[in-house]
Automatic annotation (TrEMBL):
Protein's name according to its UniProt entry: DUF4268 domain-containing protein
GO MF entry, a single one: nucleic acid binding
InterPro entries: DUF4268, tRNA_endonuc-like_dom_sf
Organism taxonomic ancestry: Bacteria, Pseudomonadati, Pseudomonadota, Gammaproteobacteria, Chromatiales
Domain DUF4268: 237-370
Organism: Ectothiorhodospira marina
Length: 395
């Protein structure tokens, strides 16, 4: 750090000092400075702190004292642990202990702690104490205490302040941050220039530039975890649905799915006699569906079968009993013929009706397509797709 000499148009280095060399102590000086100007530990942009207690010792069955206790604009408690020239080895452990103690504090207890702080401060200054609840509501910009989110689960923040950090401290803080523990390390350095003293307060972990990145990464991780849990839940749901569906097919006159096992996917396929072109059951959140999916690796073969079946559309739909949806899907390899029903699929109370519908309509679809598929299968055996290998068929 340099001091600018405007007259000489020069910069002069400031002398780095130790707190102990200047006679400063943790409790009488550093703590007092931060108590009265907590903005030194914020990054601006609305990131404010309100000190609600110092030397807090209100932990059951312990005689430990938390240096400073604050609250941020989101209603999170902030544990501030101060050291001077050396962080020591145990500062993270101390801060974690205090955070665990504070995690149990209820909303009203936080207000009472703050009120005791204001009472003591007013006594020292010889003034009337402010009302803690009113000050809190003004700081949090809330109308009433009931609507405030205060000290919610896993919301506690840790701030450590020291002139020098040992490696075991910084490594531990960085490791904790990976698990969503909000830890910050501020480096405080005293400087001297003649009779003038200066204090530089710098956040070193995480760096201000890395904070947004880490927040984004934690949000992404939470989103991925939520999606993973949702996926596992859906897999379990689908497996249960298909087990019940296959049991119902086993009792029916439709034997297509007799040798098919339940799966975690939203679909089940059964052979139609043509390779890569199978009957399909669909179980979705908003629909159930029966169909024939032409999805072999040969787009021209899929389209050939689709087109041949479409020439027999009136016959097929009359046999099925309803108009089908014909999907040539020109931009894709596959083609589909299907019939669907809107449902609230994830409501298990609807499953018996949905399963009955699938069994009935797959039975009808197989009957309607059986003859036409036999004809198309014979045509495939004699069809030569230009400059392409022949079509594979089921035995």
């Amino acid at each position: 750090m340099f001091k600018i000499d405007s007259t000489a148009n020069r910069i002069n280095p400031l002398e780095v000092k130790r707190f102990s060399d200047l006679g400063f102590t943790e409790r009488k000086h550093l703590q007092e400075w931060l108590e009265n100007y907590p903005q030194a530990l914020t990054q601006g942009d609305g990131d404010e702190l309100l000190i609600i207690q110092k030397e807090f010792d209100g932990f059951d069955d312990t005689r430990e004292r938390l240096d400073l206790l604050a609250i941020d604009k989101d209603g999170n408690l902030v544990i501030i642990e101060n050291k001077l020239d050396d962080s020591g080895r145990d500062v993270v452990w101390q801060a974690l202990k205090y955070a665990s103690y504070c995690a149990n504090l209820k909303k009203q207890q936080v207000v009472e702690i703050f009120q005791r702080y204001l009472n003591q401060k007013a006594q020292n200054e010889g003034t009337a104490p402010a009302d803690a609840e009113s000050v809190l509501l003004e700081f949090l910009q809330a109308d009433d205490l009931q609507s405030v989110q205060l000290n919610t689960l896993k919301s506690q923040r840790l701030i450590m302040v020291a002139a020098h950090y040992r490696k075991e401290v910084t490594n531990t803080v960085l490791w904790l941050s990976q698990f969503g523990v909000n830890c910050q390390c501020f480096k405080v350095t005293p400087y001297q220039a003649g009779a003038e003293l200066f204090l530089n307060v710098e956040q070193i972990i995480p760096t201000p530039e890395a904070s947004d990145f880490m927040i984004g990464m934690m949000a992404k991780e939470a989103e991925e975890k939520s999606a993973s849990n949702e996926q596992k839940s859906r897999h379990t749901l689908r497996l249960s649905f298909w087990e019940q569906t296959l049991e119902a097919f086993g009792r029916s006159n439709c034997s297509l799915f007799n040798n098919i096992s339940p799966a975690k996917d939203h679909w089940l396929n059964a052979g139609s006699g043509i390779s890569g072109m199978g009957y399909q059951l669909i179980f979705g959140k908003n629909e159930v569906r029966v169909g024939l999916s032409m999805q072999s690796s040969r787009a021209e073969a899929n389209r050939f079968v689709f087109d041949r079946l479409q020439t027999m559309k009136p016959q097929i739909e009359t046999a099925f009993g309803n108009e089908l949806v014909w999907l040539p899907l020109p931009d894709k390899i596959a083609c589909r013929i299907q019939y669907e029903k809107p449902v609230d699929g994830y409501n298990k109370a609807n499953w018996p009706e949905m399963i009955e519908w699938l069994v009935e309509h797959m039975t009808r679809l197989e009957k309607a397509l059986s003859g036409p598929l036999d004809k198309v299968r014979q045509e495939l055996k004699t069809t030569n797709f230009s400059k392409e290998p022949g079509i594979e068929h089921d035995a």
